[in-house]
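New to this. Please check this protein:
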Amino acid sequence: MLPGCLKDNPLTADNFITTDTINMLIYLESNGDIINSPSTSSAFVNVQTLYSNLSNYVVLDIRDPQLFSDGHISGAINIQSSDLLTKVKSSGSSNVILVSQNGQSASYYGGLLRLDGLSNVYILEFGMAGWNSHFAAQWNNSNGNSPSGIQYFNNAFYNRGPYSSLPSVKLSGSGDIKSKIETRIQDLLSETFEDELIIDHLSLLTANPQDVFSSSIYSASDSTFGDQYIAYYGEPFQPTSDVRPHIHPPHTVSYAYYHDFKSIYYLQTIPSNKIVVIYSYSGHQSAFAAAYLRLLGYNNVRSLLFGTSWLNPFPGSMNYPYVN
């Protein structure tokens, strides 16, 4: 059988003329299936928990050195993303928590490390913005920042894309499939994922609502986004009659987290030939999901900065102390 759609077939090496992508899926789904495991939710730690248990974590701050020098958690180590894998492995069984400015890039890099089997890696929700208001300008500015075209938003259900072939990934490195996956993870860790700046989603991994829903991309006349595939990653959309409607852009498709990216479900409805903008409640889970999809070769996946900021405001900072 050729490696086309997997939804009707158990994923085993015997069933396919295997590719590196198929081999990755077999390994990942047979070893924890991290992206589809409800236990993944425990990877996210709120600032209250970290503050109360600070001595129980190795705190790795992955921000730019200039932002780190502006203020950081006491005892935190400033580190480049490319050095994370080596650092975490050298930490042994110690709990490691990743800290970024807004929690978005920590979710992405933390996702990659967890996909490598490092279950002692955690992610600080809302990053330094949640720790102290001194760092929360971008989150605060996102509150009520309705994107262009929000008047056309709705809570309708839209069908996912058609099933298509998986992207093609050629793994490098030597050794078994685990070693080759780790080499690819290291390559992705060495790439830039920005959450420190408001940036153009076409040039880097993180999208911004104002870019995604700008008039140059969103067409109000036919409610489409051109080559953009907009996907929500979280709890299933509520029906129109629900008193708490989840308002989303037209043609947004829904994927349930910790379930729908399994190969026998809806993974292959993610198109590999479009720019995929995936968002979640706060952007944390979607950044984690983007790590998984990019590992599999979906190179055009972006995570929407600040998630559903048009609907769910930033919960605020705890104003815990920091040092310079």
Q: What stands out?
A: The first strand starts at residue 44 and ends at 45.
